[in-house]
Amino acid sequence: MKKQAYTLIALTVLVGSLAVVAHAQSNSRIALIANIPFQFSIGNKSLPAGEYTVRSISDDSCTVVLWIQSRDGKTGAMLQTSTVEGKTQKHSSLIFHRYGSRYFFAQAWVDGDRVGLEAQKSSAERGVERELAAIKMATGSAVVIARR
Questions:
Q1: Given this model, what pLDDT does residue 24 score?
Q2: Which of 75, 81, 30 is nearest to 49 (CA)?
């Protein structure tokens, strides 16, 4: 992998502090429930920490639209993702890119599957990435582990 201005650091969040439950539905659409302990961004929209439902609302062979909504229904966002292949996942998870104290939704994975969903970096995320690269501040990723 090419050396970049930032280093990705994987943070594993304790299962006791978050509960993420995932299941694949018969039509291959996904639904995840996650208690996300930090404020995060989807595209250019900022969402508060809390419990969220992540659902695929449309999909084809390589593009999936995700609807991410707070469990209380007060806030939510929609984003287009692309499929990405990786190792078969032991746990369902949501992955966020971390820049200082800011988090951006990056990927969703379902346990037992080797195909995940990946969001494109938003203009807001690219801007924060450039700012932090200019001052050489460390960045990373946050992984929310799940169980079925």
A1: 34
A2: 75
What number of residues does the chain have? 148
Q: Give the separation between CA 43 and CA 78, rounded to whole angstroms.
A: 9
Contact between 68 and 94 under an 8 Å Cβ cutoff? The reply is no
Query: Which residues have CB under 8 Å from 29's CB, separation 6+?
Result: 55, 56, 57, 59
Q: For residue 39, give the nearest of 29, 50, 24, 31 by alpha carbon.
A: 50
Q: Tens of pLDDT along 63-108?
A: 899 999 999 999 999 999 999 999 988 889 999 999 989 999 999 9
Question: pTM higher than 0.85 for the full model?
Answer: no
Quote the mean pLDDT of the chain: 78
CB-CB contact of 6 with 134 (8 Å): no
Euclidean distance between CA atoms 31 and 57, whole angstroms: 10
Q: What is the token pair recorded at 87? A: 């190792």
Cβ partners under 8 Å of residue 107, min gap 6: 84, 93, 94, 95, 116, 117, 118, 119
